Amino acid sequence: MEKHLEVSLKEQGKISRLTNKTFQFPKEIGDSFYTANYFIKSTNIIRQFAPNHQVMCQWFQRKDDVMLCGIDEAVALIHTFAKNPEDLTILALHDGDMISANEPVLKVTGRYEDFGFLESLIDGILARRTSVATNVHNVLKVANNKVVFSMADRQDDYLTQVGDGYATYVAGVKLVSTDAQGYWYGGKGYGTTPHALIQIFKGDIVKASLMYLDAYPHEQVTALVDYNNDVVTDSLKVARALGPKLKAVRIDTSKSLIDKYFDDKDTSSFDPHGVCKELVFALRDALDREGFNHVKITVSSSFNPSKIKEFEDAGTPVDTYGVGSYFVINTTVGFTGDLVVLDGEPEAKVGRNEYPSTRLERVPYPIY
To answer: Which domain holds residue 312?
Structure first.
């Protein structure tokens, strides 16, 4: 698969679009397996009784402050599966563009029978990718340049990982869990110890971490320290045992639990459940008092923009946020594709019309 690592929208600007050599599409798309049945029937009727009309279809959504993603994939889909794609005129924004409600992001003009059957697939691509990119963007806006790690691989069907990982990258996060998430941009999965490894060693976090080092001696460890619900105690144990080989500790306490650190503490002024600010402050203080200033703190479990903002506003000593389910909430953005021009004249259902745009750019065919 061709990689287009030069297309880093965050780092190098809009150099070129990704192509249909980058994306992997199932061949069944060409057999209309994924196409809504009424689009198949409409295409057949138009081919038989009303061919060769020039139509414009535009795609838009209804929210402000949205990060667009899926455009290059949608264009590649058209270039791969449309009939006579060289005859189509495609105007499009770029992946990573910030967009507003009712702003057109893609306009395709040509014979309906050549591309109309792809409408719903494009809706879905734009909705999914833009939702993920916008979710990631919303997290980064409040994270104060802290490292953000995508743990979204386990939050949805595994087949979503490649596209979601690309959308995550477009929004500015490169640290992902699986190789699949990094596939389209050349990234690799990252991670060290899960709860399962600690369980195999009967809850002995130190032993699990030492065995990790035996298996991967050239790496540092990020130790998961909430297994026994005693974060401060276990973090100090693993820090004493590993010394400079301990890169970080990760707190992943369930929001249904209260860490043992609070057993003898007054918690009447705050909610001590789960990964709370007070636990992170206590952990940072304990590590620093024993000289483990080099050990960073990663937090995960139910983090979203509001919780991250709360932590950042309080100056909570977090180095890395692990975010999972929030990234792949797919109700953030929904796209609509509408036919709005017929043979050069306005024609659309009541309430719809072509939206003007000075930002759309002509997309050439082919892209190599």
So the answer is: 191-323
